[in-house]
Amino acid sequence: MEDTETVLEKDAAIDLGGGRGLVSLVRWESGLVILLIACIICGTLSFKYFFTPQTIFFSGLDIGEIAMMALPMTFIIITGEIDLSVASMLGLSASTLGYLFLHGWNIWPAMIVCMVVGAVAGAFNGILITRFGLPSIAVTIGTLSLYRGLASIILGTNTAVGFPLSTLKLSLPIGKSEIAYDFAIFIVMAIVFAVVLHLTSFGRSLYAIGLQKETAFFSGIRVNQIKFRLYVLSGLVCAFAGILYTYQEASANNVTGLGLELNVVAIVLLGGVSIFGGRGTIIGVVLAACIMAALTTWLTDIDVSGEVQSIIIGGLLLLSVLVPNARDGFVRIRALFKRRKVGASL
Amino acid sequence: MSQHLDEALSGAATANPKTPFILKLVRFREFAILLALVLVFVGTSLKNTSFASTSSIQGLLSGPAVIILIAVGETLVIITRNVDLTVGSVVGLSAYLVGDVYVHYPHTPVLVALLVGIAVGAACGLVTGTIVAYARVPSLAVTLGLLYIIRGLDAVIVNAVQINATSLPAGFIGVGANNFIGIPIMMWIAIIVVAVVGYAMRNFRATREMYAIGSNPEAALLAGIPVQRRIFSAFVVSGALAGLAGALWLAEFATVGSTAGTGYELDAVAAAVVGGVAIFGGSGTILGAALGALFLNTINQALVAGGVSSFWDQAVAGLLLVLAIALDRYLVVRSERILRVEGRDRGRH
Questions:
Q1: CA angle (A122 as vertex; B314, B33 as ends), nearest 5
Q2: Number of folded domains in chain A?
Q3: Domain span including residue A99
Q4: Which of A51, A147, B64, B269 has its Cα between 20 and 30 A from that of B8?
Q5: Cβ–Cβ contacts within 10 Å for residue B238, how many?
Q6: Chain B partners of A144 at a C-beta cutoff of 8 Å?
Q7: What is the pLDDT of residues A81-113, one digit of tens each?
Q8: Which residues, at least 6 apart from B324, have a Cβ–Cβ distance to it below 8 Å?
Q9: CA torsion through residues B68, A314, B117, B172, sign
Q10: Which CATH class is domain B2-18+28-41+64-340?
Q11: Is residue A345 part of a domain?
Q12: Is the ipTM of this complex over 0.85?
């Protein structure tokens, strides 16, 4: 309750600040821009090929699918829910594709089946959460295990390889440019998601749901229907990401994408989306994805091991939830000290 | 909230003879799991007689000890309406550091090694607890970040150097391999922890306050309960138990790299939820969580013994978790309805 109020307060503060010159620049996204520029400068200083098209291509290639899954996740977290099963849905889609391909299917119908599987997986999450009113965190921890398990059942220990040559093109840059396919698709999707979130009544209703579900319901917003659709959307996007991932890796097995849900949540939270719901922007998430890509590339270039990288990513995630609370925390600590002083003087 | 409803309802149910008998039993989650456990066990034994052999049963008992310990700690945290996703990483860190102690001091007594594990875990819990309780940030995000950080730290310390059974004394490995009165030592440790923590959760003021916090944080604060301190202690206990579990993990597997305990956090949450611990806090028992862990592990073993491919493990575990949550929800909705009807009847008289 208290949490919702603070969020409301902050939201109001930002709305009031809008259009007041410099004040309106002080917001989460500006910090992200600075962080991104800092990453790029550091990267260029330590590695002269950092800001070249080739490096940018590989960074984009690595982050593409994860960033894609972060978009529907942003919507879901804004409504105050979560979907931890995203990486398992990606794996399920990849395994389905691999299985069908091994059994001689043509690549196109196989891809359609994958998308249907993703939609069904998302719909299952959605039904459990909206129709039965179950907590999304528990449900999606369950389906994380369930969908990964289904992927294992489908593909066993097999690894599907030998996809048609035409699919390999997806792991190369588009035409003569140096843009990765998955990153380009992510950017297009991000624009669509941004328009839907920020410029349509559907998008506004997501914030309403996240801030106060009951109020949203009594304002005539179909809370459950919208949430259900978001989960189906998440399933579809993850299935699509799974297909792309498979083609880029040129292989699929039952551990494809294992553990990526953490990266996805990390990007969304770093992007300034409140874990309590009701707050966040797509541009923030896009910036966070770029930061993640630049940071990983830079750290890899200066020979920082993957382990240390995970410490840094974890630290960023921690900071992104701590910083918005810092002001409140500071006030509380000051109050604590005041009380101590009063106690001492007594 | 459902805790109170359950209590109120068990009173209502005895007064109302029309409540089906089976529903009354299902409400005692521990009993329901025990029943399911027996059914799975008997069913599998009929299909594969070696499943009921002594050595197989001992395997069934020693396997889940590590998860039971983590699930007990996780239960404390979940009861306060938080979640601790660091436990898997803590198991890994503690397992390696305990092994490292043996590499440098081969004659360390077993008890000291276990204490080292507990200390490592408690230190991690201290950090998590401080951030969650005093910075008042959501535990899901904090522990997700710390999951990365602790695992990364572990991998940096491991630095691709595995610790093997040759570095570990026979006495320590014996903890993971030997039995005492026919039951694995690992399981004895788990039983003792479940008994102690379970007793504490029923009888002590501080632990009852954890239930109050989980049921309604605002009300708990207004009632004068030191909410932050209780949440902090829940995380420290959870960390310490995960640390102990890490030491036992090393005793059981005798080899440790940087991936020990990966994904255990989800197993622990699953065990607790299957065992009837409400994910939104305020309700659930330690015994339930422990039985949940035992049940999930037995199902896995039963699948193997029943000739089902082990690929089914994870899917079945996930499905069970979803079913358990759905069952909980059904019971709560039903309780509310029955209470409403009772209240109306009472009003009429």
A1: 40
A2: 1
A3: 2-340
A4: B269
A5: 33
A6: 266, 318
A7: 999 999 999 999 999 999 998 888 888 899 999
A8: B273, B274, B276, B292
A9: positive
A10: mainly alpha
A11: no
A12: no
